[in-house]
Amino acid sequence: MDADRLARIDRHFTRYVDDGRLSGWHAVVARRGRVVHSTTYGLRDESKGLPITADTRWRLYSMTKPITSVAAMILWERGELELTDPISRWIPAFADTRVYVKGPATDPVLAPQVEPIRVWHLLTHTAGLTYGFHHAHPVDELYRGAGFEFGAPRGLDLAGCVDAWASLPLMHQPGAEWNYGHATDVLGRVVEIVSGRPLDRFFEAEIFGPLGMDATGFAVDDPERLARLYALDPTSGRRVPNDAMGRAGLKPPTALSGGGGLVGTAGDYHRFVQMLAGGGELDGARILGSRTVSYMVRNHLPGGVDLEGFGRPLFAEMPYRGVGFGLGFSVVLDPVAFRTGTSVGEYAWGGVAGTSFWVDPVEQVTALFFTQLVPSSAYPIRTQFRQLVHQALVD
């Protein structure tokens, strides 16, 4: 990779800070396991004048999902669960969940499930669960009415959240469509029940400890290290602090969200990504078998279709065209349709505050970008970051 071309990353995203679009960022690029570019710029908290540093903590939000998916596959490798297992085996509340057919949220027409929600449905976001913040469907409205838009109702732990979601209708029949929602949170609860350990303890013992990810968890060890969260005001178009959402990560939550609850450093997440790129192993610590990782990053959508062909046109952390979905990751099927010069088989995901990562297994490149601005779709940071990384490949 050409160092001068990699420096274009810094010049480009420096402008994002200098003109006020972002407060700060951290970018990390590696090839064949070696970091070739790691740069920080800007402030983690403008009001206090605190700079972005290597130990800055970031709210990972949905970049928690790949970690929870790996946790489930650890149990799968041990024979403690099957991808085809109905989740009602561990969560009886999902045994008779109804499915939305038509009508308003105040009087929806519901039908029985054709088949049960299975572990595979949770991993692939085809279970029929949703998010209240979509604001696009009557079932989203029902979630908001139950207190689920961003976060959970006060005092509700993960088990209580799962039972609440089970009492609401599914948006569609399990396996019929792809819809981004609380599936990975439910998966986290399955991990807890099957393993007999709270999710934070499972993560620490099975993933964070072995990989040396000592700055990642559901709360920061030092609030001063946590980057402040900002939001784009839709009225003024200006960036403003979002301290309501930003409270996440400051203290241990009541509900351990496997779908979006972790905070951590860029260095820690780099180690997690290097484990994936290394076929499940890093520095002698094997988390998954190489065949398991290979299986997870294949497209699991029925018929090999992309998200545009199988998903609802709602918010997600990746574009839909030319991209499929595996067990916890987006998977590039057609770089031409994706409109990005990456490789077939690139797998990735991101978080609502602008964090993202991707792995190009053909070029043996990994890349991570961290900032704290919601929504992540405010600017084309992810596509531009890909362009800037790929143009630096010169061999």
From TrEMBL:
Keywords: Hydrolase. GO terms for molecular function: hydrolase activity. Residues 9-384 form the Beta-lactamase-related domain. It holds the Pfam family Beta-lactamase. The keyword Hydrolase applies. The keyword Hydrolase applies. This is Serine hydrolase.
